[in-house]
Amino acid sequence: MRILVILRRVLDPAGLVAHARLRRLFINREEYLIEPGDHAALEAALRIKDGGGAEVVVVSGQPEPDDDTLRRGLAMGADRAIYLSGAGFADADDGVAAEVLKATVERLGGADLVLVGMTRLDTGQAQLGPRLAGALGWPQIVGAWSVEIADGRIRAVRRDGDDYVIVETDLPAVVTVPAKALEPRYPDGARLINVYRGEGGMAEAVLQWDVADLMDPEGLVPLLEGRGRDFPPERERGVRVEGSIEEAAQAVAEALRGRRPG
Amino acid sequence: MDFALSEEQKMFRAMFEDFSKKEIAPVAEALDHEETLPLTILEKAGRQGFLGATLPEEHLGADLDFVSYALLMEALGRDCMSVAVSLGTHVSLVAMSILRHGSEAQKEAYLGILAAGGDGGRDVRLGAFALTEPDAGSDTSRLQTRAGMDGEEYVIDGVKTWVANGEMTGLFLVFAEAPGGMTAFLIPADTDGVTVGYREPTLGLRNVPFNTVYLEGCCVPAANRLGEEGDGREIAEAAGERMAVTLGAAALGVVEDSLEVAAQFATERVQFGVPIAEKQAIQNLMAESTVDAEALRHLVYHGAWQVDRGGGLGSVGSVVKVFAARVAQQVTNRMVQVMGGYGYMEDYPLARKYRDARALGLIGGPTELHYVRIAERVFAGRDVAITP
Amino acid sequence: MDFTFSREAKALRRMVRAFVEKEVAPIAAEIDREHRVPLGVMRKLGKTGLLGVCFPQEYGGMGAGEVGYCILMEELGRVCTSTATNVGAHIGIGAMAIHVDGTEEQKLRYLAPLARGEQFAAFGLTESNAGSDAANISTRAVRDGDEWVVNGGKVYITNGGYADVVTLIAVTDPALGARGGVTAFIVESDWPGFEVAREEDKMGIRGTSTAELVFDDLRVPHENVLGKVGEGFVTFMKALDMGRLTLGAACLGGAQAALDWSVAWARTREQFGTQLAQKQSIQWMIADLATEVEALRSLVYRVAWMVDTGQPFTELAAMCKLYGSEVASRAVDMAVQIHGGLGYSRDYPIERAFRDARIAEIFEGTNEIQRIVIASRIFREHGVRISP
Ligand SMILES: Cc1cc2nc3c(=O)[nH]c(=O)nc-3n(C[C@H](O)[C@H](O)[C@H](O)COP(=O)(O)OP(=O)(O)OC[C@H]3O[C@@H](n4cnc5c(N)ncnc54)[C@H](O)[C@@H]3O)c2cc1C
Ligand SMILES: Cc1cc2nc3c(=O)[nH]c(=O)nc-3n(C[C@H](O)[C@H](O)[C@H](O)COP(=O)(O)OP(=O)(O)OC[C@H]3O[C@@H](n4cnc5c(N)ncnc54)[C@H](O)[C@@H]3O)c2cc1C
User: Fold this and answer.
1) Which end of chain B has fewer CB within 10 Å, C or N?
2) What's this model's pTM, rounded to 2 decimal places?
3) What is the atom index within ligand 2 of the atom nearest the CA of C158?
């Protein structure tokens, strides 16, 4: 059983300050989180590994200062990590990324299950899983709150309106996991240190694959083109209401009345 | 110049210390744990005349001069800062404001009751002083509490925080913004629209209830106004000066007692074969603290003496307050250190004194604000604008 | 020269911070209020491997060295001094004694479960007549065949109330005293003759257990002698050196937190129509403190690096503890002042930090003892021997 988990990284929003007047985003502290949905997906994979054994491979392609999204995954318990380097992949849109990941699965010699976060924290996009399932031609389960392997099939619980329903499908499959589905475990301390030091059998744990070796980069044409940045329109500043409680309430009521159309 | 206490003052001091040692010292630790100030203690204090300490006899007071009153605060402060702060609020902030600024009718109506601690029986009630608001701490120039005129009555609305004695008071001295400016009002606790709310859980001074007080459509007759409209600031400032000396005296008590407790400990505690008192490090902690204590004593007595002479203290009140806070915090801190691990235990008195003393840098206006007041004096008459 | 943290150190800090924010921060106020040791959190820390942060991986540790351990303590100190103290007593001194001088078997049998948080340790040095003068202990151990029989007791032992394993020292040869006559032992708390006699009621770090232990014919197998017979005092002093450094790291976290809160509040709070941050009184406090915090940070991590690179560091560890505890105390004092009344209220973490910070100047050797350690090292280089 081989499970591939995609780990993207996202800027920690706690380190960001938006400046509406200057129409700029300031990075106060450049720190990255594992994309919360991917983090939960890794937890789901590790639980399958804990339960019946599996090889868990984490894959990423985005450079960052300390290069540690994958290392964090290894410290949590993943067996191998693949860093996809090279032309265009880091900023690729989900269509391109799906093609590259399909090639990665093939190079690995196949996988039984691909797990990935459902919705991205920063962009709100939820396409990678479905597009990858499409590219691979595999069944998919979107938004699994829990995942288990039973009789060679995958069984998941997903939300359907206010209900939770149990669904099953054949392997191999792609499953997307919502951010809050599972509480990711803490890394194992000793593993964490070994991953960084390249000790304790972790020396070869991070592989680097060049995208150009996997496929012809010519084929990687993004569906969308970027055309610069914009900022949401500035909101009107609030006003401070002074005076007694009655006066203040009166002022608030009038302001609301003035705002209501008609 | 004469720095000696009179025979009478010495006699008072002995009496105050006796009272404090007998009635307060034995229960101080337990009361801190329970966070209560029992009526029985206040009743006893009332019987001694302490609740009306500085009020004239005609108002059932003990007619003490302010120096003697400071000696009382010092004695109480030795054994329990909480009791000193509670009584000090009652006498210096509330009763004496009425004595100094009240009409004959107001004095008649309130002072006797304040001195007796209520209308009689087990009804000990302490005055409370309500100035601070959520958005008006250091800066009381823009109170949100409003007093509007409605016929013969004022209608008062607002929220006051950190009101010492709040839940045990019979009478609030409330500061509010009236049409003519900041104004003081006497509001009996049973007035409709007065609600005593949240009690702050505090680091120290745990026996004193510090409450939030809500005033909602609270009506009081114009006769309950203390002084004229717009006199509020002057009344609050004069009260603050008296309180500065009062707190200074309590601080002096805490400092003296901490020194005594630690000196005793250092004498008995043997490490490395000798009493730790024989080590210079300990001697230096005691010596520095004694220097501070002596300086504080003279400053406090001098401030008290000036209160007796009438007129304002000017920046001296602030000087007393700043120095008292600094000395009390530093000395209790050093004495905790002298006692080593024992200083950190709640079953020895130093931990409590250290927690109590920390209030002094805040209560009655934080140190930084008093620096501004002192600087105003320093630069008075020179062409500079000192604003907080 | 290169002052940057390694990638693994940064990753470790991120891991610790995530843990602390999620598991420790939410309970910090509660364990203080309820006077409860957070055993669940301690076990969880063990499961992640963090309690073995500085121990070798052969014994269940992480192998992250002193730098790693200082990171753990700094991050814990930022949020909860009680938890930092529990961890410090457990690994920084209790288990550390086994780490520095234990045999292979002792490390496998005791250090490994301690590093994994399956068991907890305490460090038994202080006695009622041996505080600063630790060599003056009177707990006695007498050889009886393959066993030692221990009689006596220890006071103020952190984790004492719940530890599974206690490292302690006892006199084995009264004629030799601390120089050759004191031996360290590893003792299990469920052995007959081991008794927890009392829990202390402390001003702060109320989420810790500080217990008095009594040993009554406690029989300890000879294989549980820690280090060489007669050399126990040396073993204990080595463990204390390590503990002092990491206590400095916990103080760094505490000071940083107090600074962070103060900056945040000075931005938020307005008086006199402006943010407190606009006032020089406040700016100066912040600037001075930030300077001290940076100096402390440099000292702590430089000494940690010296430990990891095998350099002598005894007096530098004493400096970490001395300076760290003083900076932390000044920091919380400033935070109380800047927060005004809020700083004095138990509803906010500053009040707890104020009570908690005070202990660091007292335990693991009072600051006076640290000064003695530092001065004696300095004078020794100049041919002068000083006695405490
Ligand atoms: C134990 C206790 C008892 C109290 N009892 C009473 C009572 O009985 N009645 C009552 O009315 N009030 C009472 N108070 C309230 C007390 O007077 C206020 O807490 C105090 O005035 C400070 O106000 P604050 O807490 O709002 O702090 P803030 O005014 O917000 O001040 C916060 C910090 O900013 C500093 N600061 C503010 N302005 C300036 C400036 N312009 N320049 C430089 N620094 C500045 C302050 O010095 C302080 O360090 C009590 C407070 C305490 C703690
Ligand atoms: C909460 C808490 C937890 C503790 N945890 C532990 C623990 O886990 N294990 C353990 O073994 N111990 C522990 N201790 C004990 C602690 O280490 C001692 O309290 C400390 O060493 C001081 O000893 P003492 O309390 O007996 O004070 P003393 O030694 O009596 O000191 C009293 C004062 O004298 C000063 N002094 C003493 N000798 C000299 C000298 N020669 N020159 C100058 N000044 C001197 C001291 O600095 C201090 O100011 C703990 C204590 C506390 C309060």
Assistant:
1) N
2) 0.93
3) 8
